[in-house]
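Entry 14. Ran structure prediction on the chain below.
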Amino acid sequence: MLVDWNQILAALGETITMVAISLLFATVIGLTLGILLVVTRKGHLWENAAVFNVLNAIVNVFRSIPFIILMVAVIPFTRLLVGTSIGTAAAIVPMVLFSGPYIARLIENSLLEVDPGVMEAAQAMGATPRQIIMRFLIPEALSSLLLGLTIATIGLIGASAMAGAIGGGGLGDLAITYGYQRFDTIVMIITVAILVVMVQGLQTAGNILSRKVRRR
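Output, structure tokens:
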């Protein structure tokens, strides 16, 4: 059977679009939640047990829901937000809700690895909490943060493939519609190969970038 490369390239474009837009919004959400989870915990810059406990519970709830279930559960919200429950735009909504809390935990862990002495030194120099976060905490954790975002991006690629199960578009939809339902082994092999190459490329790029920004 002849391979329709235009169709494959179109599906690849949809996957890249889904991952890129989802990563953008999920990173904004995750970075905000991750920083708040660190600075509001006991003994930190803006200690606030109530805020920490609420945010911690929200993140735990969303992280405990498997992506395939989350996609179905938020269909009414997705339809309300983008006007449809199928297609690339619809897939982005559950991908953001799934990845945002996951990125928050990765960012939280990276920030907690920073030597407390760095913040103590910053406070001794008279830095404000905002300055400590932006000029000391995040830069010190940048190498780890980049690795975390690399892992999150790879997770989003996997989520975009699963989104094909409910008509989310992209390589996952192509693999299910043509590779599985129409028994087109060639299409299945090609889509899997493309996904493997994407993951390998992203992981390599993330590792290299992380090493370049790592503080000596």
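The mean pLDDT is 87. Will compare against last week's run tomorrow.
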